[in-house]
Amino acid sequence: MSRTKHxxxxxxxxxxxxxxxxxxxxxxxxxxxxxxxxxERAGSRVLIRLNGRKAVFHRPHPxxxxxxxxxxxxxxxxxxAGVEP
Length: 85
Description:
Strand content: 15-25%
Distance between the termini: 10 Å
Number of domains: 1
Shape: globular
Order of helices and strands: HEHEEEEH
Largest sheet: 3 strands, antiparallel
CATH class: Alpha Beta
Number of strands: 5
CATH architecture: 2-Layer Sandwich
CATH topology: Double Stranded RNA Binding Domain
Number of helices: 3
């Protein structure tokens, strides 16, 4: 993955302290670029599949930014799936 918006999003997910201003749409685009599959579930839930791993996340609403707790969970999921910046 070249130095693109996706790389900047990945860097933000792994940033310390954990940011609370990453747009969920950017996260979904990153996951797709990494080869992940995103399946809609009930309500605001989405099932993410990446490198043999699965996790369910909630799309943030009404604001598009992902909260810190979700970013930490996403970071753990990415590490488990073998993805780090």
